[in-house]
Write a structure and sequence with these properties.
Elements (H helix, E strand, L loop, with lengths): L4 E4 L1 H14 L5 E9 L5 E9 L3 E2 L7 E2 L1 H13 L6 E10 L12 H9 L4 E9 L7 E2 L5 E5 L2 E11 L2 E5 L1 E3 L2 H5 L7
Bound molecules: zinc ion.
């Protein structure tokens, strides 16, 4: 099967950025909801994202979701799959200095967690201090990168294929990038 392309609705993209900024040097963690569209090529369409509030966050450390909260969310997904069509998870990798640098990309722990879950994908957002300009764009490799205020971002999507993982291409309406410009830059 060809690699699925991941379509991220503008609001979902903005919510992921918001989540990563909110928790700053600590990881944010959330759930991706949406659907698989197999009609014209394979697509994963992310239609909603929800940040998980009951997460144990520590600076420079992976966030942990309590078993009780995970059980409640799984029950919700099971009972109302039309309202909460589970696709996967997102979390941030804060990267602020060489001392506080989180592993970029999918870590071994992330890979293990993804293998154990029934997630179809995982989005990881790297967030760090910006230096120089970095206009918002979708790179050729499918990563979404850009700068907002003094933060820089890189969003990557992954899924599991057999015994390994692969990077998936992200897509978002480029119109949302124009909204991220400062009013003085318009
Ligand atoms: Zn991670």
């Amino acid at each position: 099967m060809s690699k699925p392309v991941v379509y991220l609705r503008s609001e979902c993209f903005l919510n992921i950025i918001f989540g990563a900024i909110d928790t700053g040097k600590k990881e944010c963690l959330g759930v991706l909801f949406g659907r698989e569209d197999k009609r014209s090529g394979s697509k994963l369409v992310i239609e909603n994202v929800c940040e998980i509030q009951s997460v144990c966050k520590r600076t420079n450390c992976a966030s942990h979701h309590s078993r009780a909260s995970a059980d409640r969310i799984n029950k919700l997904i099971e009972c109302a799959p039309e309202a909460f069509p589970f696709l996967g998870y997102f979390h941030s990798h804060p990267q602020w200095s060489s001392k506080e640098r989180h592993y970029p990309g999918l870590s071994e722990g992330d890979f293990d967690a993804l293998k154990r879950s029934n997630a179809k994908l995982e989005i990881i957002v790297d967030i760090g201090r910006a230096s120089g300009s970095c206009p918002w764009m979708v790179r050729q490799n499918g990563a979404i990168v850009g700068r907002l205020a003094n933060w820089r971002f890189a969003l990557h999507a992954y899924n599991i294929t057999g015994d390994t993982w692969q990077k998936l291409k992200l897509k978002v309406d480029p119109g949302v990038f124009l909204k991220l410009r400062k009013p003085t830059e318009k």
